[in-house]
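Risk register update: the risk of archive-format incompatibility is retired. Evidence:
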Amino acid sequence: MKKHISICLFTFVLILCFASFLFIPVLYSATAQSLASIFKSGKVRFVQDLVITDEELPEEVYFQNPRGIAMHSTGNIFVSDIDAHNIKIFNPAGKLIKVVGRQGQGPGDFNSPSFIDIVGDRLIVWEVINRRFSILDENGRFIKSIPNSPEIGRPEGMKALPDGRVILMTEMQVEINKVLQQWYRLFLLSSDLEILKTIYSVKLEMRKLITEPIRMYVPQPYTPCVYWDTTQDGLIILGCSDKYEIEVHDPDKGKLYSFSHDYQPIEVNDEDKKLHFSTFTIIFWKGNTKETKKGAPDYVKNNTSFPKYKPAFENIISDYEGNIWVRPYNKNREVEEQFFDVFDKKGKFIQSVEIFGDSSFPSPSFKVTRIKNKTFWKIETGDDGFYKIVRYKISN
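Archived output:
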């Protein structure tokens, strides 16, 4: 009898251990935290995971004005530097592999390289001054250049789709009777940058043309703008910030659906106006000497119009789960970059999220790379005034 009981107990323990072994992956999977579950808590931390500074570079190499970041499937990091006129390539650990290009117009030269992205194994670079796209292989070797088509306007942003096609945003400026008209469009391009179709088009008034005392385009603050991103599965999310409405487009089928969200309009106050004018730097020449003057001159102030309210939001990002991040304005400017709204891929509101720690929401002034594996990249300026490239982990 005792022997029979012992055998039964031993068999039961074996079954229990085997069952536990079977359920370990299930339990682990269930406890693995998604980004959506982190956002539901209303709090998130962006923790520095990797930092690339001038200290990691050779003495003769440094960041002058980095503008774009692209990630290759090997993990290599490509950084465009608009003032250094080159592309810096780093390995996954942030160590410099090589510097590609120099200022010029010839094959392999760059003149103000700005935004970049990876299409297959090729790096596509937009050069502002040369007004062309340069295409390099994964090692930075020049393949060819493609001049920009004037009829589509000036490129303002670019992202590759998973199938190798490209989404390009452009601005087209047209002067009619000294009135500036500005059209912003999203185009679908082939992998060889041939125009396939127009995804989206809207007319905005972000600048005003003046001719006296000088000819210039005066920025009009807090005017609506188009923000957009692409998803991991090849959709386009976009919105014009005149209202809190986000559209989701398929590159072939067109607009799939849209969703909106209630928000409290934020008034433009005197501090906002003062800050706007303080960002101006006027450059003028006295003989052969270049001089600069901080602050906006009267002819700029007199031709600047402030709306009563700020736009509905100021950036859109899609993460690797398909969640959509939208950064609205906030009454308290000091904490404005610490809050953002999150929606799932169908537009269902998840939560308003507060960012804890030293980081903030990615600025629309640079192109954040697609968020993968709970990490993303930012171009930042340190307390010492020097640029740095930072990879952040997203955690609770």
